[in-house]
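Sequence in, structure out. Go.
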Amino acid sequence: MSGDLRHAGPSGGPDMASELPGTEVRPVGTPKAVGIVWALLGLNTLGSAGAKTIVTLPRSLIQMATMGALVAAFALALALNLRLRIRPSAFVFLLTLLLVPSVIASANLEVGYGALFRCARLALFVGTLWLLSRWWDGSLTFVRYHIRMYFAALGTVAVGLAVSPGTAMPEYYGGRLVGALWPLTPPQIGQYAAVIIGLTVLLVIGRRTTGGSAALVIVPSLVLLALTHTRTATVGMLIGLTLAIGSLVLTSAAARRFFVWTVVVATVAGVVFYSALQSWFLRGQSQESFSNLTGRAKVWDALLAAPRTGGEKWFGVGLSDKSFGGLPIDNSWLAVYQEQGLIGVTIVAAIILVLGGVALLRPPSLARACAIFLISYCAISSYTEAGLGDASPYLLHLALAGALLAAPATVTPAPAAAAPGRRVPRWARR
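Output:
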């Protein structure tokens, strides 16, 4: 993939010197404002429905904040990339294709005008990713943006827990941790914690951060993850880290040591704390409730058994709130099938397969390991969480994986300057 190789000026545009003939062409630097755009995209995906907060926030106000963040992200990305320089990206191209069945199905208004609003939101989300693709070069810059963004979100959860423990761990969620300042659900908090823990661990293994800085992120995130009792996030994090570290084992001594010690510690902890771990994992549920995935299986069976027309089967019914019969679907593949049909399912599967295939073809590196962690985490979570077919944190995780797997921009060498001619004295010329 070819990139824009002009030297970026202070505003993110090309430096005037790079336009002059005979000057050296340098890779584009990433403006600091790009991190703000990434944070605004993350704010947009936080959602507007969840737990009860300390101060009741009207849902309309939260929706204005999240949608305003997306509009601001697109406007700022456009201001940083006024010449619309983009890098080829199979991931963003497939996301653009996903807009087709979304718009076709939503135009029928079977689920109301909200479907068209969600299509516009997805279009702005994809458009912003296209504008940001100019700075996707396989570096770890966006990894740091990702960690800071979700660590800030977890900070609001920790503050809410400290201020009002009863509101942060309500009985209607079974005593699981929720967002008391911003309406975040336990699965959301668990997802954010698991992702930044995995990425930070990989940065430590790759010696891209200090142990103290990593502990400052990992320790509180682990505590919050444990308080959410989120099984999907925990399992996804463990399997994702196993695959990511496994990709570094042959080339990194630090990865080998970490892998061995982790296996030893996990084995000892599993034997000593087996009863406590089993109790945490079951969350007080009966065997029947656990076997049908807390009622999810009943919703899935009803969704698959519902009658559909040919158009609904291939294009879906349009973007909705990821529910069926008033109950959450909680499965990305079935949610995509419901909203974007078999065509949508095919495109989403292609996104996972393309990213996974590119990751396997890349030589071992820390960026590749981070991408493998994110791809595997999203693939595992898709079984009990929805979000792969619409603007969501899961698409943002996969966008980060796409940025990590982008080929670095090559530097075009400057043409060699002609050697100055030797001055010949006038008497010699005569």
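Check: Residues 48 and 58 are 9 Å apart (CA to CA). The chain has 18 helices and two strands.
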